[in-house]
Specification:
Strands 1, 2, 3, 4, 5, 6, 7, 8, 9 and 10 form a ten-stranded mixed sheet that branches. It is elongated and about 105 Å long. The two termini are 57 Å apart. The protein is of the alpha/beta class. It is 62% helix and 7% strand. It contains 34 helices and ten strands.
Length: 729
């Protein structure tokens, strides 16, 4: 079983990665996600407009008068009624971002989306006789996706041609003006092409309304099917196939429902009125109540499956947000939010679950277990209530309950599979983020993650939400790496931030810091680190370990905070520790920033009695003047110097000079990344007798650190274990 599950995860991961490498598909999926806020707002408006509770409507009418629906109608006008226009903008914008980043094209995504919007309107033909504004609503989503993608591709291809680029730069013109002027010819050609296509469709093929044409083709196909069972099953299958590819299947096939399944309900009503037995199983109410529970794909079943079997907080959060809309059969938030669209893992359950529910419901009605649907029920009526209202029997509600459980069972295995595939995708993207952060650290350059509109931006934003949540709930921690001298005596500890993500394990600390800084969480996180380090230091002192100095790293953004010095003083007083037992570490780059504010903050740290250390000294930017200016207590050698000390004589010479200077300026030198005894001995020969690295200990959680110190189990030179007395003497 585990073998099959792992094999499926690998297969779907490969498929998912291939989809992720297709800018076109990625753009459609991301465009749908961009639409979530407006879709949610429109869903809420529809709920208030269509809530099938007479007492509610009476109350609203009595309280707000005849016009109480107007505001909700206006919200619907600004969301669902222009859903196709929104889709064009979001999809084309997403494609311009994705394609531009992958191929280093400098095309404004705003201009690209504006051109796509113009192309869609040009194809729709507002000036045509008989034009309906409904073309801009859900019924036009299919065409809007096609136009958004094709117009964006055409515009960007044309924009890359030197022949069409206008070079008009005037005095004082900015880059935005340049982008706009450069886009003139590509935009004109792109929009004109769709206008010409509209004319060809009208004049040559006599297609005046492309949306009506597509719906007409679908209706014509169904009219040739003689079997009600076949037409019903095919209808459900096609609706969900269209939905899976991002098209509003229910709206695309609405003419089919109006021509076949709405009259079927009327036929049942006429038969009952005449005293005869109803004969039509498949009616529009049948599909709304027994198949599309929660909306397309039986979305309510998916929500229950996620709540029961899901592990990812983001998915569970989305499921909770979607409960109320889905209860009213509005499923767009779930479909676009997960997303279901173009998600290979959910293809089978999303398509086949409604087909299975159609079959079970058909059999239940056909064999008389549930009455035929004969009452018109608003499609927004919640489950159980709608089952009873449509059949006039409690058995209708029981059938809904059975279908709900059956659909949930169908989705549960795929929820776990989808999360494993998502985890594999995230781990791959995490590797890309780590590489990006690593390059930024090496080049001493700032990096922006949260503002990106690609996979890296997605994972960064997701991690930031989780980091904030875990920080609020005290789920970050500190590890401590011991610092010992040549004799094996423990003299200090460096506090190192560690965050173990619920799904992805320990997150690379530089990434945690980068996210915290960009999301403006660094002050809160920094205070937590100081507070926890001082708390643990106080506990060590109470255990008799009062000769230890704890070092804490701080960033430039923390130093620039007006409250930093007050916070530092606060935690020292709060935990009643000696200021000199706490050491603040700053990087060499931060020291060299040399702003007056940072200089004053560092001097204030010294005035509190707190020790000061420079980390990563010797990275190539060092200025000896700042060693005197800041009066450091400790200099920590850059790891690259220590790693190459056995093979590079220049490293030895640099370290020897730093140690000699330290004796002159009265600061101590600590070598980090000491991993071999040969390094320790050579450092000793060069005059450096303070060390930190895996030769002695890896970073340890606080409880394990205390245990190791008390048991004397920290490894030192030649694999000999130091006793507690040796460590602390």
């Amino acid at each position: 079983m585990d073998f099959m599950r792992d094999r499926l995860v690998r297969v779907f991961t490969v498929i998912d990665q291939r989809l992720e490498n297709q800018p076109l598909l990625v753009s459609i999926r991301r465009g749908l996600i961009f639409m979530i806020p407006l879709v949610l707002l429109g869903s809420i408006a529809l709920i208030f407009l269509s809530l099938p509770i007479p007492a509610y409507h009476e109350f609203m009418h009595a309280t707000f008068g005849d016009q109480w629906k107007n505001v909700f109608n206006y919200v619907r006008d600004g969301t669902f009624s222009i859903l196709s226009l929104i889709m064009v903008v979001c999809t084309s914008y997403s494609y311009a971002i994705e394609h531009g980043q992958r191929y280093q094209l400098k095309v404004s995504p705003i201009i690209a989306s504006a051109v796509s919007l113009g192309s869609f309107v040009a194809l729709s033909g507002i000036s045509k006789a008989g034009f309906s504004i409904s073309s801009f609503g859900p019924v036009g989503v299919f065409i809007s996706i096609v136009v958004a993608v094709t117009s964006a591709i055409l515009f960007m291809r044309l924009s890359s041609l030197e022949l069409l680029q206008v070079r008009a730069f005037t005095s004082g013109a900015n880059s935005t003006f340049g982008s706009a002027v450069t886009a003139i010819y590509p935009a004109a050609i792109t929009i004109s092409m769709f206008a010409i296509l509209n004319q060809v469709l009208s004049g040559v093929f006599e297609v005046s309304d492309i949306h009506a044409f597509i719906s007409g083709v679908a209706s014509s196909m169904f009219s040739r099917i003689n079997s009600p069972f076949v037409s019903g099953m095919l209808f459900v299958l096609l609706v969900h196939l269209l939905w899976f590819f991002g098209m509003h299947g229910s709206n695309v096939l609405e003419p089919v429902a109006q021509s076949i399944f709405v009259p079927a309900l009327s036929a049942n009503q006429v038969a009952i009125g005449a005293g005869s037995a109803p004969t039509e199983v498949f009616t529009k109410t049948f599909f709304d109540n027994f198949v599309l529970m929660g909306g397309c794909g039986a979305a309510l079943c998916l929500i229950l499956a996620i709540m029961l079997a899901g592990r990812h907080k983001n998915q569970r959060r989305l499921a909770k947000m979607s409960v109320i809309p889905v209860l009213c059969n509005i499923s767009e938030l779930m479909i676009f939010g997960i997303p279901i669209v173009l998600n290979p893992v959910y293809f089978l359950p999303f398509i086949l679950t409604p087909v299975l529910l159609t079959l079970t419901s058909y059999l239940a009605v056909y064999y008389g277990l549930v009455p035929y649907t004969s009452n018109l029920v608003e499609w927004t009526t919640p489950i159980l209530l709608s089952g009873y209202a449509s059949t006039g029997s409690i058995s209708g509600s029981l059938l809904q309950l059975f279908n709900l459980l059956l659909g949930t069972l169908c989705y549960i295995p795929f929820v776990g599979l989808a999360e494993r595939v998502a985890d594999a995708r995230v781990k791959n993207n995490l590797g890309r983020v780590y590489a990006l952060i690593g390059n930024a650290v090496e080049q001493v350059a700032a990096t922006t993650l949260l503002a990106r509109h690609d996979d890296i931006g997605d994972i960064a934003r997701s991690l930031t939400v989780d980091l904030h949540h875990d920080l609020e709930n005290d789920r970050v921690t500190l590890f401590y790496q011991p610092q010992v001298d040549h004799a094996g005596r423990l003299f200090g500890l460096e506090a190192l931030l560690r965050w173990k993500h619920e799904s992805y394990g320990y997150i690379h600390p530089p990434l945690v810091i980068a996210l915290a800084e960009e999301a403006q969480l660094i002050d809160k996180l920094g205070y937590w680190v100081l507070d926890r380090a001082c708390h643990d230091l106080k506990h060590l002192n109470e255990l008799g370990m009062d000769c230890i100095t704890v070092s804490v790293n701080i960033s430039a953004l923390q130093l620039e905070n007006d409250n930093f010095i007050a916070d530092l003083r606060d935690v020292i007083q709060k935990h009643r520790i000696e200021p000199q037992s706490l050491q603040v570490e700053i990087t060499e780059q931060l020291a060299l920033a040399s702003s007056t504010r940072i200089l004053n903050q560092i001097k204030s740290i010294k005035q509190l009695g707190v020790k000061l250390a420079m980390d990563d000294f010797g990275m190539g930017h060092s200025s000896l003047m700042y060693l005197k200016e800041y009066e450091f207590n400790t200099i920590k050698l850059d790891g690259s110097l220590v790693r190459e000390i056995l093979v590079n004589q220049n490293c030895c010479n640099i370290i020897s000079s730093i140690v000699f200077l330290g004796k002159s300026l009265n600061y101590s030198v600590v070598a980090e990344y000491v991993e071999r005894d040969e390094q320790r001995e050579l450092l000793h020969e060069l005059g450096c007798d303070r060390y930190q690295g895996y030769l002695f200990s890896k970073p340890l959680p606080y409880p394990q650190l205390v245990q190791c110190i008390q048991e004397g189990s920290l490894c030192i030179s030649h694999g000999v274990k130091a006793t507690r007395t040796q460590l602390l003497q």
